[in-house]
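Example for tutorial group B:
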């Protein structure tokens, strides 16, 4: 999955701002990352949750969020 694909995914999550949509990335049936777009004071924020640790990171920049997601999913998938 390229950075552009991840950015497109994030844009689509935010497009449906009236819905609460969570995208889950899994590998071999194990959830490695959950992503949702939040609209806070008319500003988009990306919430990344790591299910194995319940750590939550927030990104306001789509490029930074995509970079973080790409890094996480690349670790979970063998080359």
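The residue assignment follows.
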């Amino acid at each position: 999955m390229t950075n552009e694909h991840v950015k497109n995914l994030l844009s689509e999550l935010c497009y449906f701002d009236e819905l609460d949509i969570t995208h889950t990335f899994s590998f071999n049936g194990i959830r490695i990352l959950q992503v949702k777009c939040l609209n806070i004071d008319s500003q988009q924020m990306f919430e990344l949750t790591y299910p194995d640790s319940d750590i939550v990171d927030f990104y306001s920049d789509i490029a930074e969020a995509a970079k973080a997601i790409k890094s996480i999913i690349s670790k979970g998938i063998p080359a």
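Residues 62-76 form the longest helix (15 residues). Compare this with the pattern of hydrophobic and polar residues in the output above.
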